[in-house]
Write a structure and sequence with these properties.
Keywords: Signal. This is Lipoprotein. By secondary structure, the chain is α+β, with helices and mostly antiparallel strands. The chain has three domains: 68 residues; 72 residues, no CATH class; 84 residues, Jelly Rolls (Sandwich). It has three helices and 16 strands. The strands form four sheets. The chain has a four-stranded antiparallel β-sheet with strand order 1-8-3-6, with no helix packed on it. Strands 2-7-4-5 form a four-stranded antiparallel β-sheet, with no helix packed on it. Helix 1 runs antiparallel to helix 2.
């Protein structure tokens, strides 16, 4: 298109100059100057265009480079980086050492080895709080140690203790931590159980004795991502004494503030 415009301008100059031949002292010099001017203008235009094209190409290349660096949206990158992994306590199975702790605060790794434990109290009734290194609750339970207090809290609790966990004991003078040897069970008492380790995956009929307790059974495999929650206890307060539940390998089943429950696998 540009070549066509230049050609038309040259033709116009030549025709115009032909009409002015008689009026100019040196019409051919004048004509040559105009033609040279047009041609030099074309070259200049082409040079500018080439420079502009090169600058544009450089800019586009730079923009393409930036696009490559930020190709993954920031939100997706953060999401991938913060992806939570399933809880895994397999390294704590069968680990631990018989330990007795008194009222106060204790550290796993210093006052008691890491492992899987059944916790019981010598006497009275009190509380046991276990937090991880991020101060997030691992276990919060009321523990009783006498027949007279059996209607309050739990007589025993099973828990996994990772190195770095803190244990706070309130109101109990002696608390015993006994290593737990994993075996297949059909009864769950309060604490944490692993599907595929303590009992097979599948569909189960779950039953508990009629009680005034109000407790819960939660099923999860990731922190803060509960797959199912069942209320146990007095129906007047929304509790159940029997229900059906499905468990997958790797699920953690946590029973809180409730007597033991029995689990019977459906065929």
């Amino acid at each position: 298109m540009k070549d066509r415009k230049i050609s038309l301008r040259l033709i116009s100059v030549i025709l115009g100059s032909a009409l002015m031949l008689g009026a100019c002292s040196n019409p051919f010099d004048s004509l040559a100057s105009e033609i040279n001017g047009l041609l030099s203008g074309e070259e200049s235009s082409e040079e500018v265009t080439t420079e502009e094209t090169q600058e544009t190409a450089d800019d586009e290349t730079a923009e393409e480079g930036q696009t490559d660096e930020t190709d993954v949206p920031e939100s997706e990158t953060e999401s991938a980086g913060n992806e939570t992994k399933p809880l895994d306590y397999s390294h704590l199975m069968g680990e631990g050492e018989e330990t007795a702790l008194e009222n106060g605060t204790h550290k796993v790794g210093n006052d008691i080895p890491a492992g899987r434990y059944v916790i019981t109290a010598d006497t009275g009734i009190g509380n046991v709080f276990i937090d991880n290194e991020e101060d997030r609750s691992v276990l919060s339970t009321t523990l009783n140690g006498t027949e007279e207090s059996k209607d309050y809290g739990s007589g025993r609790v099973i828990v996994f203790l990772e190195e770095g966990h803190s244990i706070e004991i309130n109101g109990l003078e002696g608390v015993n931590f006994a290593p737990y040897e994993t075996e297949e069970v059909t009864e769950l008492f309060p604490g944490m159980w692993i599907v595929g380790e303590d009992f097979p995956a599948g569909v189960y009929d779950v039953e508990t004795e009629s009680t005034d307790y109000y407790g819960t059974m939660e099923v999860y495999s990731h922190p803060d991502q509960v797959k199912a929650r069942y209320s146990l206890g007095d129906p007047e307060y929304g509790g159940m004494s029997s229900f059906t539940a499905s468990f997958e390998a790797g699920d953690i089943v946590e029973l809180s503030n409730s007597p033991a429950v029995t689990i019977n696998k459906r065929e």
